[in-house]
Design a protein that fits this description.
By secondary structure, the protein is mainly α. It has one domain. The chain contains 16 helices and no strands.
Amino acid sequence: MVRIALRRTLRDVKYVEVVRPRRARGLVKDVYRQVERDFGMLAPPMALHSASPEALAAAWLVLRESLVAAGSASRADKEVVAAAVSAANECPYCVEVHGMALGSLGDPAAAAAIEAGDVGGIPDRDTRALAAWARGEGGLPADIPAGTAAEFAGVAVAFHYLNRVVSVFLGPSPLAENVPPQARAKAKAVLGFLLKPGDPPPAGWALELLPAAAGDGPGDTLSDAFARAAAAIEAAGERSVPSRVRDLVRREVKAWDGKPPGLSRAWVEPLLAELPAGERAAGRLALLTAKAAYQVGADDVAAVDATDRGLVELVSWAAFTAAVAAGERLPVRPPREDPAGRRG
């Protein structure tokens, strides 16, 4: 059953060639080692970035320092945020993975409710409020300290990013397609056990992977991690995404209310009219990734004339731009420092 559950490997990444661990060198090798040490396995959502070492390091930085590293919030609460954001973004792969992780941490009822799209059915009131906030449907409870709220926001932004790249490059489930329906529950239980987090590693160990962002002074570890990642992904966008496409995506994301545009793709074509014909394929993929990654198809990817590195960097840039905007739209309330009321 373990073999069945883990049969979906790095070969399941679509459209780009993943650097195999035995062939990894330099920054890719350094990131792979950290991912295996701190996350427990080299997960495809990380490895899919490997054609661009800087994008890989940026993706790991935001995931590790928000979800995996020790902080004031519990890992279970952070998994609630990860699963709820993933459900809102219609990313079944991430919902399944982080639902299994949440179940392994002792809250299978919350995991099942989130996966079913029924946040209101979560039994625990605080967990229910946290999941609703992650979906943009309410504020955080007033007794959550500012530092803990920042960690939740970091997890939310990280998964707004990862949901988008996963939707483009991976299938709908971490389980192999040939696992029969009657065996899926058992396979999920085994994989959930393997995904159960251990003691959280110290914060900040991944900062060494990327240089400090220009102009940034001393700050907390989480802010530093996101600043370094943002600088790396912006540089990747400058290399691989035409400037007119970047301007269009920024403008559209800024004006967007965050609601999924639905099943129809009719919304995207009129927006491409301002681009030169040679940039419309890149513009289409970038806009779809940013606003409706679940609508990206093989034809959209094939139409873009790019190397593996260029393709990863285009998708990463569009996904991160949308993720930052999603973080800015999260409901906020005046933070209150109150160690006595700290969750987790």
